[in-house]
Amino acid sequence: MDFKRIKELSSRNYMNVFSRQNICFTHGEGNRLFDTYGKEYIDFVSGIGVNCLGYNNPDLTKAISEQASKLIHSSNLYYNREQAILSEKMLGGTIFSKMFMANSGAEANECAIKLVRKHYNKRGQNRPTIITAQGSFHGRTLATLTATGQESHYKIYSPLVPGFKHVPYGDLNALREALTDDVGAIMLEVIQSRSFVRPANYDYLVGAYALCRSKDVLFILDEIQTGMGRTGKMFAFEHYGLQPDIVTVAKGMGGGVPVSAVLARGEVAEAFAVGDHGSTLSGNQLACAAATVVVDKLRGGLIEDIADKGDYLAGKLARLRKYKFIIDVRGMGLLQSVELSEKLNGNYIAAQLLQAGILVNITKKNVIRLLPPYTITKEEIDTFAEKLEEIFRNTNV
């Protein structure tokens, strides 16, 4: 099917909720994608952080293929070998004692919200409110949209789900003032990466954690984007020495197969009883087989490799600060960004990179967000950095 026909069918049949670039990919190999015309692109988007092992990874494709030939799904009415193996590997060596699997980041965060409410219900306490941060992003279901601290995302869906407060990200005093008796949890992102890619200040995140401990409030970290090795550690909170009560992960967990998880520790990990929560497709055999490959690779040395290449990429980007239209360079591991002056539209830069065979993601019109596969090479980083600097050299603002 040619590209024109693909566009016609999409326009006719699919709900108009996406602003798509004028391109369609047919296959991938390594860290590169190929479009309908056969053009090759180095990928610094990886399906918005999903395709963490790149494309056609032999171990991942083998595991998926072999599992598909045996059993894709049986439901949680029965015991599940692949789920048992993955949960043991996911929890091993962590601070967490229990997990629940879902299919997307939003579902994982929904589960975390329900877990908080059940925890306090079980205690006989009425503490349903969760504090989140302005600028956050927690998902697109009604509850996770309400939790999201960006009015532009949820204002058209009123009435919203009650039980959420938004405070400025990085403002510990605002967090402290919002901690009323009805608050059961604070839910934050280690890096706000939906828009401006803002890593949390160390004192702020540690301070928020200390507030929770002093007030007997649960501390939740949404690591949908930053978990599963993205920042050079299994979980981004490890950079801060914290012990959250609940953490949510998704994105790269299945290497491209939809899967997510909620991990919990202590008393809250035991809050759910039979029938309190569930999901038909969650933790199916295919998703677990894929996620097991990702976990094995991360535990087998890939995390250290991510940290090394993340530092390398950050170093390349730091050299771009000399350009007057660069506002900031921020990130952690293989989640990096370049914020441009508002006078310069990031989509213009992205279009030039696309023409040069490099894929990047633009957020808020002027932030270049980089989420390459964990298998990205230093040579590919060099190619990207050289091309970006060439574009910047020829940009007059």
Summarize the structure.
By secondary structure, the chain is α/β, with parallel strands linked by helices. It has helices at residues 3-13, 46-49, 58-70, 81-91, 105-123, 142-147, 151-154, 172-178, 202-215, 285-318, 346-355, 378-393; strands at 25-29, 32-35, 40-43, 98-102, 129-133, 164-167, 183-188, 191-192, 198-199, 218-223, 246-249, 260-264, 326-332, 335-340, 358-359, 361-363, 367-370.
Q: Which SSEs are present, and which pair or pack?
A:
Elements: H1 3-13, E1 25-29, E2 32-35, E3 40-43, H2 46-49, H3 58-70, H4 81-91, E4 98-102, H5 105-123, E5 129-133, H6 142-147, H7 151-154, E6 164-167, H8 172-178, E7 183-188, E8 191-192, E9 198-199, H9 202-215, E10 218-223, E11 246-249, E12 260-264, H10 285-318, E13 326-332, E14 335-340, H11 346-355, E15 358-359, E16 361-363, E17 367-370, H12 378-393
Parallel strand pairs: 3-15, 5-6, 5-7, 7-10, 10-11
Antiparallel strand pairs: 1-2, 2-3, 4-12, 8-9, 11-12, 13-14, 14-17, 16-17
Helix pairs in contact: 3-10, 4-10, 10-12
Could you explain how this protein is built, in words?
The protein is an alpha/beta fold and 397 residues long. It is 38% helix and 19% strand. The chain contains 12 helices and 17 strands. The protein has a 7-stranded mixed β-sheet, sandwiched between helices. α3 runs antiparallel to α10 (285-318). The longest helix is centred in the last third of the chain and has 34 residues, at 285-318. It is globular, with a radius of gyration of 21 Å. It starts with a helix and ends with a helix.
